[in-house]
Amino acid sequence: MRTGGGGGRRTCATRPASLLDWELVTRRPPLTDLAHHLGHRMPADDGRHMRAFRRQRTHLPGRMAGEEVVGDHRSRTGTRVTNREGPGTSVFGLFRIAVIAQVGSQL
Asked: Is residue 33 part of a domain?
């Protein structure tokens, strides 16, 4: 994680300016970590076919739903995630996981 700013940009030293993704070795905005987390979440009411992809126990009682995760992220970081960005964030998270799985299967 890089904090602060380079190249003449001023940023707060306590907030990430960018993150290094070790799986894909890319620099990206911090919101993509939320996307990656949401990509692993499968709601409890998913259909039979989607349940086949479930790899984590995020559907169990007591676990936060995706909307709650976004709300918690928003309250802790001050990052604004709008309804327009939310679905795209989840789709990006799923895409990212698919790329990691594809690369991993070729090793």
From this structure: yes
